[in-house]
Amino acid sequence: MPVTHRRAVLAGALAVAVGLTGAACGGDDEPSANGLETSRLTLGTMTVADTAPVQVAIEKGLFEAEGLEVRLQTVQGGAEAIPKLKSGALDISFGNFVSLVTASVKDPGFKPKIVAEGFLSGPKTHTLMVRKDSPYHSIEDLKGKKIGVNTKKNISTLMVEAAGKPKGVTFPEDVFVEVPPPNMEQALKSESVEAVQAIEPFGTQMQQSLGARMIADLSSGATADFPIAGYASTEKFVKENPKTVAAFQRALQKAAGECQDRKVVQDILPKYAKIDAQVASTMSYGSYPTALDPARLQKVPDLMQEFGYIDEKVDIKTLIAQAS
């Protein structure tokens, strides 16, 4: 690919990643020179630290080296990504594992396959934040109060519930208000919610710009080093495009390896997320797995069953794409 075209692809992808969502279009069934079933992938992503490996793979030409042209489309979360995967508007999408497992159980028309892990929680990567002048100082204080989450019944709400259980606090679904992560600061300012379940870099950004306070670190206890999200496709796409999926996996795994160096993530975050270098240098980081670990991923459906998100035990191995 000529250098000028490669730069154009990168520039377009980063523009999409900060919210200029392009028209949805799935794989074009264009055979790759590398023998892949298709050379083009439409990938759902989010403008959060969790997706740094995708941006690294684009910037360093790792997808390109595998014969792939990856076009990004921003999604708010799994609830938005899953219908787009089903329709073929997305070939692969980043999303939280709770939404994925829920859909696999409750939506008979959706057969998802996990192709890569994306992000594990780390200390203070997922927090409960309140306003600087808020009268609330603990998770117990939030009983019955409105809490902003990016999507209901997903990883955000599960982490809040898991943190509340040891304190004897339960959270009915109606206390949760859906707020896109970039809008959570304004939600706190306007007092439309009393707290937000913040993910990085937005938690640190709210602390620095708003003086927001953390009242609970949700990346601890039952959800310490917890599998938060990853990349999934449909059974149909994986079955029809095994070499393409394997190429995607290889590129993403290499990028995840690069992201073990925190400075790599710090340097790329300001390029696709609306944050400055100061936030990127002080925020909290989790980790980026370089391989699928079924035992680790099993923690997700097990915790979901404990809190009633699903009724029966799910064997996560049935949702993992087999390597080509």
Q: Summarize the amount of helix as a percent range.
A: 25-40%
**What characterizes the major β-sheet?**
5 strands, mixed
Structural class: alpha/beta
Biggest sheet, spatial arrangement of strands: 2-1-3-10-4
Total beta strands: 10
Strand content: 15-25%
| Rg over alpha carbons | 19 Å
- The backbone outline, from C-alpha atoms, is globular
List segments where confidence is low: pLDDT < 50 over at least 5 consecutive residues.
1-28
Mean pLDDT figure: 89
Can you count the helices? 14
Give a written overview of the molecule.
This protein has 324 residues and is an alpha/beta fold. Helices cover 39% and strands 17% of the residues. The protein has 14 helices and ten strands. The strands form two sheets. Strands 2-1-3-10-4 form a five-stranded mixed β-sheet, sandwiched between helices. Strands 7-6-8-5-9 form a five-stranded mixed β-sheet, sandwiched between helices. Helix 6 (155-164) links the parallel strand 6 (147-149) and strand 7 (176-178). It is globular, with a radius of gyration of 19 Å. Residues 1-28 have low confidence and may be disordered.
Q: How would you summarize this macromolecular structure in one to three sentences?
A:
Helix content is 39%, strand content 17%. The strands form two sheets. Strands 2-1-3-10-4 form a five-stranded mixed beta sheet, sandwiched between helices. Strands 7-6-8-5-9 form a five-stranded mixed beta sheet, sandwiched between helices. The protein starts with a helix and ends in an 18-residue tail after the last helix.
